[in-house]
Write a structure and sequence with these properties.
Blueprint (H helix, E strand, L loop, with lengths): L14 E3 L17 E5 L7 H4 L6 E6 L2 E6 L5 E4 L11 H16 L2 H18 L2
Parallel strand pairs: 1-2, 2-3
Antiparallel strand pairs: 3-4, 4-5
Amino acid sequence: PDTSFISEITTGVISADICRGRTLSDLSILKYIDFLFISDEDLFMEVSDLQQYVKGTIILHYKSGSLCYTKGADRIKTTTPVIEDVNVLGCGDMFAAAFINAYMMHSSIESAVVFAHESVSQHLRGIE
């Protein structure tokens, strides 16, 4: 619940993942966030309204893909085949981790999103 340390970070990339069950009481903290990950189930306001608060990119992920919203840039839409009848617990965390890894290696939002989807899909296919 204590996010006060975020405003003290002066270098690097800051990402956050919004999860179900928690409310973000202070939206002003989002002005420090470079990448905000949120699933369609956890979206608590219109993305266009949320963009006013977030410093960088909002990555809205859902069962069949994702949409990336970056200020001053076109939206990036990625689709992926839906894998039915699997437990997806933790897939959002895996998606965020794979994205961050790929972004740090290649500095491309689009390629990082594609890599994240591919990584999660491969994992899900492996446990079917």
